[in-house]
Specification:
With 144 residues, the protein is an alpha+beta fold. The chain contains 2 helices and 8 strands. The chain has a 4-stranded mixed sheet, covered by helices on one side. The chain has a 4-stranded antiparallel sheet with strand order 5-6-7-8, with no helix packed on it.
């Protein structure tokens, strides 16, 4: 399967199958799940989430897209517009990756947590004011 890309200002409410919608303004891509279930998949571009590469012709997204919260639990990579199926993950593998993702975000954003694995802002570093995450802004933008 291949995905055609469309650069858009806003992600449309209805996603056409086989189209990867890319909003540079909102640093987000969205597409209808490549398994065919029709569920919407949103991939925000951030230092700790997905990275988009446009080579002037095709788009790639990394890392892989694992739709663990969807009933289909599909898992694939988008490489130069081509959808490459990846193997299924166990619940344990998903849990491990979610912990890694949370830890990466905490390290990058200097999140202060209480309890085990506390991550704090390094001495002398300026804390950024609290604001909605990119994913929260994208959800608000997509769903009102």
């Amino acid at each position: 399967m291949r995905l055609e890309h469309r650069f858009v200002g806003h992600i449309p409410e209805k996603l056409d199958p086989g189209v990867l919608y890319v909003s540079m303004e909102y640093a987000t891509a969205a597409h209808s799940c490549c398994c065919g279930c029709g569920e919407e998949v949103v991939t925000p571009f951030t230092p700790t989430d997905w990275k988009m590469t446009f080579d002037g012709d095709k788009i790639s997204l990394l890392p892989s897209i694992g739709s663990w919260t969807l009933p289909c639990r599909s898992h694939y990579v988008i490489d130069r517009g081509k959808v490459i199926e990846a193997g299924p993950w166990t619940d344990e593998q998903v849990a491990v990756q979610r912990r890694r993702d949370r830890a990466a975000k905490a390290r990058y954003y200097g999140t202060e947590n209480s309890g085990i694995n506390e991550v704090t802002t390094p001495p002398g570093a300026q804390r950024q004011p609290e604001r909605p995450t990119l994913l929260q802004r994208a959800r608000r933008w997509l769903f009102g």
